[in-house]
Amino acid sequence: MPAATRLIIDTDTAGDDAFSLLLALRTPGVRFEAVTICNGNVDFNQQAENALYTIEVAGRGGDVPVYLGSARPIMGRWQAAEFHGTDGMSEAGFPKAAQRPHPRHAVDAIVDLVMRNPGQITILAQAPLTNIALAYLMEPRIAAAVKHLWIMGGTDNDVGNITPAAEFNFFIDPEAAKIVFDAGFPITLSTWTLTLKSGSLAADDVARIAALDTPLSRFFMTVSRVPRERALARYGAAISTHPDSLTCACLLNEGLILESADAVVDVEAAGELTRGLSSIYPPRLVERWPDRDANARIIRTADTRGFADMLAAVLK
Ligand code: BDR
Ligand code: CA
């Protein structure tokens, strides 16, 4: 039997973050070690409630500890995105889950899990990178001890979703992103550019999920309502965007990755217009930094149909 994937998800749970948690909670062969909460989408404690409720809805209440991390970015000011509604769950008004956050700090939990299990723990970072950067600053050996770090953030030198230059996760804490990409982690990066290309479900995929009419498909329809409305207003198409859950799906099934490339990734932490911009280029092709080696694998295309099928399967 293949070894289970031992997973930590670092998340600012709102909208699609929750669907990523559902994929990990309901895919066989995942040993889900921890959920760690980072500043990001909405109010920090609300994000923790959203994660706890998602675990309960998946029928896994009490199985996966939820640790609270850094409620603010390293340098920047926290600013709500509210792309997913003020509660992050499309104003669903869900009740509080019975499970409560673990008393330990998320950064301690990350360092401890990785250092006690060298080469075994995979981390999915689907929020600003504050917790991961702090964990690295506290214990730099985690960069070599982690099995793999999957990151959702940045754009592939394309237009952002929070400013023209930047994607939300990197914009909120670019200093943290810079620290993480300079640290030597084995990284796979899934960008907002990839989300628009391969991680956006069309109206008929959403209708297929609605037609399942299960508790989890109803959860999906409720939680994705506001972002679907916003996507329609922003992109002129009735799509449902899945940055975090597409990344989780690729982690759980690398066969979904159709095209990727090794690249040098850097993050702009200064600049009035460019703060949070991700600079991505093939090693040795630019004049200014000829010696820099690739520090990440960038996913360029993923299997949208395979992703939609995987998501629908866990919502059944
Ligand atoms: C990222 O920002 C957040 O709104 C989402 O949760 C996702 O992690 C997409 O830019
Ligand atoms: Ca997120």
Keywords:
316 residues; alpha/beta; Inosine-uridine Nucleoside N-ribohydrolase, Chain A; 10-stranded mixed sheet; two-stranded antiparallel sheet; 12 strands; 20% strand; binds beta-D-ribofuranose; binds calcium ion
What does this molecule look like?
This protein is of the alpha/beta class and 316 residues long. It has a single domain, classed as Ribonucleoside hydrolase-like (Inosine-uridine Nucleoside N-ribohydrolase, Chain A). The protein has 13 helices and twelve strands. Strands 4-3-2-1-5-6-7-12-10-11 form a ten-stranded mixed β-sheet, with helices on both faces. A two-stranded antiparallel ribbon has the order 8-9. Strand 1, helix 1 (16-26) and strand 2 form a beta-alpha-beta unit. It is globular, with a radius of gyration of 18 Å. Residues 11-12, 17, 40, 126-127, 244 line the site of calcium ion.
Order of helices and strands: EHEHEEHEHHEHHEHEHHHEHEEEH
Based on DSSP secondary structure assignment, what is the total number of beta strands?
12
Q: Count up the helices.
A: 13
Strand percentage lies at: 15-25%
Silhouette? globular
Total domain modules: 1
SS class: alpha/beta
Q: How much helix, percentage-wise, in residues?
A: 25-40%
Query: How is the main sheet built?
Result: 10 strands, mixed
Rg, Å, rounded = 18 Å
CATH class, named Alpha Beta
How far apart are the first and last residues' alpha carbons, in Å? 25 Å
Low confidence ranges: none
Oligomer: single chain
